[in-house]
Amino acid sequence: MASAELQGKYQKLAQEYSKLRAQNQVLKKGVVDEQANSAALKEQLKMKDQSLRKLQQEMDSLTFRNLQLAKRVELLQDELALSEPRGKKNKKSGESSSQLSQEQKSVFDEDLQKKIEENERLHIQFFEADEQHKHVEAELRSRLSTLEMEAAQHQAVVDGLTRKYMETIEKLQNDKAKLEVKSQTLEKEAKECRLRTEECQLQLKNLHEDLSSRLEESLSIISEKVPFNDTKYSQYNALNVPVHNRRHQLKMRDIAGQALAFVQDLVKALLNFHTYTEQRIQIFPIDSAIDTISPLNQKFSQYLHENASYVRPLEEGMLHLFESITEDTVTVLETTVKLKTFSEHLTSYICFLRKILPYQLKSLEEECEASLCTSALRARNLELSQDMKKMTAVFEKLQTYIALLALPSTEPDGLLRTNYSCVLTNVGAALHGFHDVMKDISKHYSQKATIELELPTTTQKLITTNDCILSSVVALTNGAGKIASFFSNNVDYFIASLSYGPKTGSGFISPLSAECMLQYKKKAAAYMKALRKPLLESVPYEEALANRRVLLSSTESREGLAQQVQQSLEKISKLEQEKEHWMLEAQLAKIKLEKENQRIADKLKSTSSGQVVGVAQEKAAVATATGQEEASAKAVPEPVHSASEIGILTRTSDSEAPDVESREDLIRNHYMTRIVELTSQLQLADSKSVHFYAECRALSKRLALAEKSKEALTEEMKVASQSISRLQDELTTTKRSYEDQLSMMSDHLCSMNETLSKQREEIDTLKMSSKGNSKKNKSR
C-alpha cells in the first residue's frame, strides 16, 4: 500500500513537473521575444542618435556660414557707406563705377536673399527634425522603460518558478526519504503483526480447545446435575432472590424518611386549615355566641370537626410504608404492599373533600349574600370557590396515580411495567399542580383577609382566625412545594430503581411471587447466619514461619525437652530425699528443743517475775525460729555478723543477749542458713548448666542449618553463574545480529543515495534539455 501511495505521489509530481516545464518554455520564449524587441529598439535609437548628430553638425555648419555671410554683408554695407560720398564727388567720373557697383549690389542682394531663404528653410527643417527626434526619443524611452519593467517582471517570475521548482524538488526528496523510512517501519510493523497474528492464532486455537472442553464438561454437569433451568421461565425466575443491594435499600429508606417528614408537615397543615376553617364558620358571618348560625354552616362545621379521622391516617399510612422499607428487604413496586394502605387512606380523604366541597361553596355564597359583603370581597370569594374545586380535582388526580402505583403489589395485571415511568412523571406533575393551586389559595385568601380587615364590623376574633388560616395555608403551600421539588429531584432515581429485581428477568410476575421471594430471602439470610461461625484465632503466616524456625533451632525440640524432663525428675527425686532427711533432722531438733525448754523452765522457777517474762519471750522467739527461719532471724534484736572459715556467724552483743540462750541454738541456725544458701547456689548452677547445654544444642542446630543454607546458596550461585554465561552468549549473538542489521541498513542507505544521485542527474539533464530548447526558440 505504501508503494502504491508513493507511485501515485510520483505520478502527480511528474505531471506538475511537465506543466511547470511547459510554462517555463512559454515564459522563456516571451522573454526572448521581448529581448529581441528591446535590441531592435536600441538599434533604432542608435540610428536616430546618429542622424540627430549629423543634423546638429549640419546646423552648426549652417550657423557658421550664416555668421560669415552676416560679416560679409556688414563689410559690404561699410564699403557702400564709404563709396557713397565718393560717388557724389565723382559722379561723372564714376558713372561707370556706379553702374558697376549697382550691378554688384543687386547681385549681392539676390545672393543674400537666397542665403536668407535657405537659412530660414534650414531653421524650419532643423526645428521639425528636432521636434520629431524628441518625440521619437520620448516614445522609445517610454517603450524601453515598459519593456525593462516587463523583462524584470518576467525575470522575477522565472526566478520564482525556479525557486519553487527547487523547493518542490527538495520537498520531494524529503518526502521520498520519509516515505522510505515509513515503508521500513511499516515493513517492521507488518512483520511484528504477522508474528502477533500467529501467536494470537495459537492462543485462539488453545482457547477454543479449552473452552470447548469446558463447554463439554459444563454441558455434561448441567445434564447430569441440574434438573431444570429456573431462569429460562419468568414464573420460576421471579422466585429467585436478587443480589442484595444495600446501598439501594439505604437510599430508598432515606428517601422514604424524607417523604414521611414532608407528609407529616402536610398533615399538620391540613389539620390546622380544616380546624381554623371550622372556627371561622362559627364566628363569621354570624357569631355563634350571639346568634345561631345557618343549618348549612352547622352541617359544614360538623363535617369539618371530623377532619382528624381522615387526615391522621395519611401520616400513619406513610409511617407504615417507611417502616416496611428496611435494609433486608427488596424495595420495588411489587413488594411495597403498604403503598396500597396509604392509597386507601388518601381515597378516604378524597371522599371527605368531596363531601365538604358543596358545603364550602354554599358557605362562600352565603358570605357573598351578606349585607356587608363588598364587590371586591365577593370577587375574592368566587376565586376561592374556584380554587377549592381545583384543589379537590388535584387531590383526585394525585390519588388516581398513587392508586395505579399501588396496583403492582396487589394485582399483577393492573399496571404494565412499561407504564411505570409515565405514571411517576404524572405524579410529579400532579404535585406541581397542587403547589400552584395552594399558591393561588394563599394569594386570594390574603387579599380576602385584607379586605375583611377594613370592614367596620370585623372583630378581633375574626382577625386572629384569618391569620391562623393564612399561616396554615402558607404552611400547606411550602409543604406542597417541598414535596413537588423532592419528587422531581428523585423521579429519575425512582425510574432507574424499577429494574432492581431478579437477574436476567423483566421483574416480578405477581405480588405472590414477590412475597415468596422475600420469604426465600429471609430463609437464605438465616441459613447464611447459621453458617457464619466465628473462626478460631489462627497464628499469622509470618509468625508461624518464625516459630518454626525457633522450633528447629531452639531447645523446644522433642529430644531437648525429654532430656530436660528427665533431669528435672532426677532433681525432684533428690530434693525429696533431702526433704525427708531434713524433716527427720527437724524432728530430732524439735525433741531436743522441748527437752532443753523443760530443763530451762525447771531451772528458772525460782527466779523473779521479770526474768520469768523474759524467759517466756525467749521461748516464743525460739519456737518461731524453728517454724520459720526468717521470723527467728527478725526476733533476734540487732544481730552482729562475724566472718569465719565455715561461713558467716550471726551473734548478738553480750550486753543484750539473754542468759538462757545457748551456743547450740546459734550454731544450728547458722548451719541451717548455710544449707539453704548452698542448696540455692546448687540449683542456680544446675539451671545455668542446663541453659548452657540447651544453648550449645541450639548453636549446633543453627550451625547445621547454616551449612545447609550455605550449600543451597552455593547451588544458587552456580545456577546464577550459568545463567550469566548464557546471558553473555545471548548478548554476543544479539550484538552480531544488530551489527548485521546495521550493515544491511547501511547498504540500503547507499542504494538510496545512488538512486537519489541518479534522479538528480536526470533532473540536470532535464534542465539542460530545457535550456537547449529555450536557445532553439530564441534562435528561431
Give the strand order of the largest sheet, numbering strands 1, 2, ... along the chain.
Answer: 1-2
- Please state the CA-atom Rg, rounded to the nearest Å: 70 Å
- Strand percentage, roughly? under 5%
Discrete helix count: 16
Structural class category: mainly alpha
- Number of β-strand runs: 2
Task: Tell me the major beta sheet.
Answer: 2 strands, antiparallel
Mean of the pLDDT scores? 78
What ranges have pLDDT less than 50 throughout 5 or more consecutive residues?
Answer: 608-613, 619-660
Query: SSE order in H/E notation?
Result: HHHHHHHHHHHHHHHEEH
How helix-rich are the residues, as a percent range? over 70%
Subcellular location: Early endosome
Organism: Bos indicus
InterPro entries: PPP1R21 (IPR040024), PPP1R21_C (IPR049372), PPP1R21_N (IPR019343), PPP1R21_six_helix (IPR019348)
Region (Disordered): 84-104, 760-780
